[in-house]
Structures are given as structure tokens and as C-alpha cells.
């Protein structure tokens, strides 16, 4: 564990490589750069957290990796491929509670995308059962989204994404709209389930506490047009009261406050 040093690359081949990526938007007839020059890798089984000031392009990067936006420069490679059309190999979980299909039950929310992606009825039901079990949702399989709490909806969204058995899970502030208690419970559940099932995650967050607790490495971005300020190793930090955890929080906070940014969870000291 190296909470306060720049992260070393894990051994082996990366699953995802982002190399000198430049991404922007055409606004009022001209190109506005959001992400200037960003490079980082994700290795299989890693939880990589994207942290940075508001508007620095975290969601833009996640959408680029999902294949929703094309980079205007650099390369994004997944398992050696640069063809990034959106697909079930990169399942996305958003912050909003309305990402579920309201007309499907919880089980239907899992089986429907599986069927669309080629699973037989039987296989879809089997996988849905497996991932509902994994996320503690078996008792809610027959309920509709409007009958669920925000935390349960996010759990269903995670189960649905994992059931597709993607190469990686892309999560854009999935717990950002939850109350503090539910948020910390889901952070723990996600961390445990991901570790036990060798899931690879790219996770956008505003919270340094979340970055340290859930992540293995944290990619800290500069203000826009963004580059990578530093990649910080936070692997193995499970106890928020440990000196190493607190040191990692301080390190990330100082990297963010170099630019005067106030992280949304300042109550860690
Ligand atoms: N569809 C769009 N069209 C034009 N500009 C956009 C679009 N989406 C994002 N932007 C701009 O790109 C920049 C980066 O936005 P993005 O949402 O990726 O940042 P972020 O780091 O995720 O922000 P936050 O932390 O506030 O959620 C911002 O200046 C934003 O206004």
C-alpha cells in the first residue's frame, strides 16, 4: 500500500488504455476542448476512480470510453480494440434513479437486456437470478421500479450491468444522489462484489472518501482543459479510521486544493 505516492503500474497487460486522449464538443459552431490530453490504463480487476474539479471532463471521458462520444485526438483501446461503438462489453451505471425500465419488474430489468444481447429465455432467467442474488435483491424480483427506494434502484442498475458480464463497468457517480448511510452501504457492497467476481470498474466521483474506499488507484484530473495531475495508489485501504486511509484523503485533497477546489466531503479530518 502506497497511499501517498504516485501509483506504480500493475504487472501484465492493461484492459483499457487511454493515450493522449483529447475530447471536446461542437458548441455554437466551434470546437470547445473539454479534455486536453489524458492518459491512463486500467488493468483487469481494478477499480479506477476518476476524481477532479467540477467540469474537468470526468463524465466526458467515461462517455468516450462507453463509445457515446468520439475522441478528436489520441487513442482509447479496449482489449486491443480501438472500435468503440457502444456495446454490452462496457455496461454503464448512471447517477439518476430513472435509468431502469419502469414497465419491467426488477427481474425483467435484468432479463430484457440479456435477451436483446442474445441470451435464451432460460439463460437470461438464470443469469438474472444469479446477479439478483449477488446484489441481495431476490426478495424484490417481482417489484416494479416505482416500488423501490433509491438505493435499491441503484442496486438493480448495478446487478443489470454486471449480469451482462461486461469487460468493464462504467459508473458515473452512481451513489451521488443517495443519502450518506445508503451511500456508504452500497460502496461496501460494490467493493465486495467487485472483488469477489473480479469485475473491472471505472468510477467517476466527486468524493475523495469514496475514491479512497472503493478504488485501487485514483486518477486525479486538473481543471479544464484537463490533463492527469497524478495517479494515486489507494489499494488495500478498507478502514476509514486508519492513518493510511486518512493520509490518502489528505493527499487527494491537497492535489485538488492546489486549484482551490473544495471536495464535497471535507469532514474527514
Ligand atoms: N453535450 C455537451 N455539449 C457541450 N458541452 C458539454 C457537453 N457535455 C459536457 N460539456 C462540457 O464539457 C466540459 C466537461 O463536462 P463533464 O460533464 O464531462 O465534466 P465533469 O468533470 O463530469 O463535471 P461534474 O464534476 O460537474 O459532473 C464542461 O465544460 C461541460 O460544460
Automatic annotation (TrEMBL):
Pfam families named among the record's database cross-references: ABC_tran
CDD domains assigned to the protein according to its UniProt record, in alphabetical order: ABC_NrtD_SsuB_transporters
Signal peptide: none
TM segment ranges: none
Assigned keywords, A-Z: ATP-binding, Nucleotide-binding, Transport
InterPro entries: AAA+_ATPase (IPR003593), ABC_transporter-like_ATP-bd (IPR003439), ABC_transporter-like_CS (IPR017871), ABC_transporter_ATP-bind (IPR050166), P-loop_NTPase (IPR027417)
Occurrences of domain ABC transporter (ranges): 18-248
Keyword Transport: yes
Keyword ATP-binding carried by entry: yes
Superkingdom in the source lineage: Bacteria
GO molecular function per UniProt: ATP binding; ATP hydrolysis activity
UniProt-recorded name of the protein: ABC transporter ATP-binding protein
Species: Actinomadura darangshiensis
